[in-house]
Please model this.
Amino acid sequence: MVLSIPVGFLACWWIDKYGLCSAYHIGTWANFLGNVVRLVASGSFVHETARFPIALAGQATAAFAQPFVMFLPTKLAAYWFADNERAIANTLSSMSNPIGIAVMYSIAPVFVNKNTPENFFQMNIAVTAVAAIPVALSIFINKSQPPTPATPSKAENVKTPSFLQGVKLCFKSKTFTVLAFCLGGGVGLFNALYNNLQPALCVKGYNQTFNGGMGTLLITSGLVGSAISGLIVDKWGQFEKVMKVSFCLAGIAAASLTVCINYENVEWWVIISICAFGAFGFSIYPIGLEMGVEATFPVAEATSTGLIIMLGQIQGVIYVVITNLAVGKPNPHDLAVQTCVDYNDQLSTVLTWKWPFIIWLSCISILIILFVAFFWPKYKRRNYEQGKITEDCTF
Model:
């Protein structure tokens, strides 16, 4: 999250200047090379003192790739899809990143668990093999845009401001500023939940398989919710209403999760809360990225998208730090039922997560109030396209 902030500015500028094709190649190859380096670091042939620095170098290389991939969906949708296809195209491409996280979230415990605690080399072989798939597919990516513009907003006569001008225009827009802060905050709070979910569940005695499954369920339900909301927006264009309703319902699900996370043996309650939060919370993300493009047109898509995601990463770091500072000491009963550690000398690492989740819920509630009260967008890109269509029909 930290490295993606400075690299994010480079990715915004690069994507807008050189297009989708080169950015895709940079992202896929840097991600693959980073995983190769991490694979080397986990090998028994590497001295123990050298493993962590090498693994960190691989992690940094893969992190360098992330903005080049995550900033692409809105530009991909804008250049290659019609106006009634953009939202679902953006949804599917935006959700590919969390789907990858969910897959690895599920696969990792299969390789590294209490029976095979040092099986990192085999796990990293699997991860690197998955990272090689988009590299192989990259040989088919040789164009950044189609020969004929998909919509009037991508016609040659539409002048896009420079990168720095685009950044200034974004933050001069009240609509974009509210959207970036609230949607970015939502991304940050999701990152905080993702980091804190497993330790919060294990202290209440839930097994590791269930804990890992909840991370996967969070993203899987998000994919379903995002697909449905994308289809609704493509058909009826109600960006604002869909986002506000989804945000409020996600807040209710977050409140439910904050309560049930403090109880044992309520798997059904945890599952329902996670499923609802994923479905409603994730449905906001791709629509919000599209809304950022709508509100800042004719600013380049990667600029508005990148700024939202970078604000999310900054807030994510803040939320993770704040919530981890609020952890507490478990009572004797929690220590007796916990599944976080297997050895008594590690019990000091077991913590309770009641107050971190209350802080997390409070932050979500504040964002919902700000978003509902102050987000009243204008659809600049759609209005421009509709005007051009009407003009063409008149002539």
In short: DSSP finds 16 helices and no strands in the chain. The longest helix spans residues 267-296. The mean pLDDT is 87.
